[in-house]
């Protein structure tokens, strides 16, 4: 870029020998870069970070291209597309829920017994001292397998029901009532997904809520519960699980789609103008915001699920145990552990949407967003 000021050679040619620039080195106020090695360190770090980012992007693109060549072109809304979305949901939910197991452990124990720990950090310190590092991740295996199954069905069936309900309604009505479409599709998907989650959720809550854990692992939990209570013992928390998960998922998907639309409406240009990396960044932000709303909406039912799996007596009806628990904890007790759950759900929901959309980009699919407006009918000329 050319300088705005004339150089020394131009000034000398203009004014002749009367102009003799002085070259005394640095001025008294000029910074000496050799005295500030941090500047060069920061520049080096930035340069290395850019190189690593560019290299990672190239590796991602190469792997994506190779995968798409092997799978062939997958048409949107085909059976292969829905299966791929199910696998993306499996990755997104299985990884994230397992990663926040320490948060879930403390939340569950504080919901079951609010006097057990004074705070979250005190709880982790106590668990670490008495149960070791392994104790911090109590319940990770049923969490991993349960949310892999639930995530695959939730995301796969959501894409399926969203397309099916949209086709039944027609493009104009589907766009006009798109929020209702998101709510209906997500509720239908979660209803089915909880059938897979419920048995593993029961094992997880009992492992985390009892000190020490009554089971050595997921399979041991299956064996002991079915031996004592039959298969019904694994599903005794199904109704409160539906009560927690269906409103949670309805809020998760509908608010996410709405927030994504709001973000792009306020950004210059269109969604297609932004890179895939930027679009997945939007997915994380929208997912985190949606997760906060999810946590608030579903928290009372989450408390009931935790207590019900731990305290329901054999043969006790759902109404009786729910009434007994509410009598013990009251309305205030239904909100016990909400701050930690907001952090947990907000983080994992944001990461879930980011992972899910990264997978869709990897497979050559568009990132998740709101429904496109219906195509305008061509004007008829008379």
TrEMBL record:
<keyword id="KW-1133">Transmembrane helix</keyword>
<dbReference type="GO" id="GO:0035434">
    <property type="term" value="P:copper ion transmembrane transport"/>
</dbReference>
<keyword id="KW-0496">Mitochondrion</keyword>
<dbReference type="InterPro" id="IPR018108">
    <property type="entry name" value="MCP_transmembrane"/>
</dbReference>
<feature type="repeat" description="Solcar">
    <location>
        <begin position="177"/>
        <end position="262"/>
    </location>
</feature>
<feature type="repeat" description="Solcar">
    <location>
        <begin position="278"/>
        <end position="362"/>
    </location>
</feature>
<dbReference type="GO" id="GO:0005315">
    <property type="term" value="F:phosphate transmembrane transporter activity"/>
</dbReference>
<keyword id="KW-0472">Membrane</keyword>
<dbReference type="InterPro" id="IPR044677">
    <property type="entry name" value="SLC25A3/Pic2/Mir1-like"/>
</dbReference>
<keyword id="KW-0812">Transmembrane</keyword>
<comment type="function">
    <text>Transport of phosphate groups from the cytosol to the mitochondrial matrix.</text>
</comment>
<comment type="similarity">
    <text>Belongs to the mitochondrial carrier (TC 2.A.29) family.</text>
</comment>
<feature type="repeat" description="Solcar">
    <location>
        <begin position="80"/>
        <end position="164"/>
    </location>
</feature>
<keyword id="KW-0999">Mitochondrion inner membrane</keyword>
<dbReference type="GO" id="GO:1990547">
    <property type="term" value="P:mitochondrial phosphate ion transmembrane transport"/>
</dbReference>
<keyword id="KW-0813">Transport</keyword>
<protein>
    <submittedName>
        <fullName>Mitochondrial carrier domain-containing protein</fullName>
    </submittedName>
</protein>
<dbReference type="Pfam" id="PF00153">
    <property type="entry name" value="Mito_carr"/>
</dbReference>
<keyword id="KW-0677">Repeat</keyword>
<dbReference type="GO" id="GO:0005743">
    <property type="term" value="C:mitochondrial inner membrane"/>
</dbReference>
<dbReference type="InterPro" id="IPR023395">
    <property type="entry name" value="MCP_dom_sf"/>
</dbReference>
């Amino acid at each position: 870029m050319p300088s705005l000021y004339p150089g020394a050679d131009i000034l000398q040619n203009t004014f002749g020998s009367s102009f003799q620039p002085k070259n005394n080195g640095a001025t008294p106020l000029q910074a000496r870069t050799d005295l500030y090695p941090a500047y060069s360190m920061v520049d080096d770090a930035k340069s290395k970070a850019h190189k690593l980012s560019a290299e990672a992007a190239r590796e991602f693109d190469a792997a994506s291209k190779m995968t798409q060549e092997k799978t062939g072109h997958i048409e949107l809304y085909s059976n292969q597309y829905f299966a791929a979305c199910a696998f993306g949901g499996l990755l997104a939910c299985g990884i994230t829920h397992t990663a926040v197991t320490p948060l879930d452990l403390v939340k569950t124990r504080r919901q079951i017994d609010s006097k057990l720990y004074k705070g979250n950090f005190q709880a982790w310190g106590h668990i670490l001292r008495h149960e070791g590092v392994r104790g911090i991740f109590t319940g990770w295996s049923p969490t991993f397998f349960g949310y892999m199954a639930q995530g695959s069905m939730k995301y796969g069936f959501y894409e399926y029901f969203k397309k099916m309900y949209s086709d039944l309604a027609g493009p104009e009505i589907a766009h006009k009532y798109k929020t209702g479409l998101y709510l209906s599709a997500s509720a239908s998907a979660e209803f089915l997904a909880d059938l897979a989650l419920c048995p593993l959720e029961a094992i997880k809550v009992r492992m985390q809520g009892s000190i020490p854990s009554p089971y050595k692992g997921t399979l041991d939990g299956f064996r002991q519960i079915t031996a004592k209570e039959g298969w019904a013992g694994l599903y005794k928390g199904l109704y409160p699980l539906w009560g927690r998960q269906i409103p949670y998922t309805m809020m998760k998907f509908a608010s996410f789609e709405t927030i994504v639309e709001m973000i792009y409406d306020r950004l210059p240009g269109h969604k297609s103008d932004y890179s895939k990396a930027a679009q997945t960044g939007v997915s994380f932000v929208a997912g985190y915001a949606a997760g906060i709303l999810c946590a608030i909406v579903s928290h009372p039912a989450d408390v009931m699920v935790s207590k019900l799996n731990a305290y329901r007596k054999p043969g006790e009806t759902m109404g009786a145990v729910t009434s007994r628990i509410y009598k013990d904890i009251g309305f205030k007790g239904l909100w016990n552990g909400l701050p930690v759950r907001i952090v947990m759900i907000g983080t994992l929901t944001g990461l879930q949407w980011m992972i899910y959309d990264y997978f869709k980009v990897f497979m050559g699919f568009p990132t998740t967003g709101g429904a496109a407006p219906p195509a305008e009918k061509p004007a008829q000329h008379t």
